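Key idea: predict the complex, not the pieces.
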Amino acid sequence: MENLDLRNPVFATYVIAATIVILKAVAMSWLTVVRMVRANGGFCAPEDVRKTTLNPDPNPKQLEPDERVERIRRIQLNDLESLPYFLFAGLLFVLTAPSLTLARWLLYGYVASRLAHFAAYLTAQTHDTRAALWSVGSLILIFMTVRTLLAALGLWV
Amino acid sequence: MENLDLRNPVFATYVIAATIVILKAVAMSWLTVVRMVRANGGFCAPEDVRKTTLNPDPNPKQLEPDERVERIRRIQLNDLESLPYFLFAGLLFVLTAPSLTLARWLLYGYVASRLAHFAAYLTAQTHDTRAALWSVGSLILIFMTVRTLLAALGLWV
Amino acid sequence: MENLDLRNPVFATYVIAATIVILKAVAMSWLTVVRMVRANGGFCAPEDVRKTTLNPDPNPKQLEPDERVERIRRIQLNDLESLPYFLFAGLLFVLTAPSLTLARWLLYGYVASRLAHFAAYLTAQTHDTRAALWSVGSLILIFMTVRTLLAALGLWV
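Result:
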């Protein structure tokens, strides 16, 4: 059986984790849209204050930062600094044929840590809470990456 | 035949779409360079206003944002919020063995939507136009991701 | 032997290069944390100036940009504009079955160019030095991507 086949349960675990984090990341873009519509502002390009069907009553103030929109942009940037690297590290990790139990703990653990981080950031919990949740995800990412590197160097059987 | 083989037409379709969007993304970096050279400004690091061969006549104003440069930076950030996720979603989608027709519509449709979005953003079309083109790409991405997730969960034959 | 098997030396080369750049990218996040702790500032969310165990003596000035923190954020953003695309271009390039020698020069050459770029940016070398190192990496990325596209189009045997 090939490694990258959905009948391989380790790969299927990866695909489930990967598609959930992709949907989570894409949801941030739509959440930004929702909040820009509600705030009727927080836009970013000069042409966004031109009169259009969706913006019948434009105003230069619509280009000023809106904290509710900026919060989602910060969450989205935080995602960008982690998720693409996780998606790669996870894929390469799966190709080193780890046990299903280990793969599930690491991959689903990462997903859980990011969803909890999102909830904490969205509701403006303290920096300490957010940092703790972020660290869990980052340590899982580092562990998978180092283990994969060691396997590629032939230092991990 | 393996899934990830260029003789597999579905995979070849993915590789063509993926390499085009990568080249598009890399082109944004070079376009930023071109516009910084033309504006002789829009730089971002304090050391960029030191006297060098490429900047013989430095000036602190070179660190101020230049709208023509910032426009490309906004396009580049918009790419970052979508393209890496598309590249993953497309790869995993291809591994679920979709039909060639569906793969072509979705993958090339995404590429076309992003190139049109770029043209609209570069020429400062209205927000409505840009939003419509962005939405097409985002919906294709969501469709591919959800279908792949369902396949991994065994809910899609 | 499968393409994506660590016993394939071309793929092992890719995995080594990929895991090194992922670890490099993740290190930027931790370096940001280290510098925020040292500066006791450079925070980004309003809730970060709430009194907590890790921030017993909060101050609104902690939300002002700190150049030592901002420098790492700029490096991290520069990584984001390149590394995910490199990770994909490299993976797809490996699937076109290049020679081991070529793969090593390109993949390790890219890693070396990025580590040198990091050293130059961190120590605030001139823009000319940074631009030269960035260009080496970008040209390697473009070469791998174009060659892969030609292979997918059947134009490269």
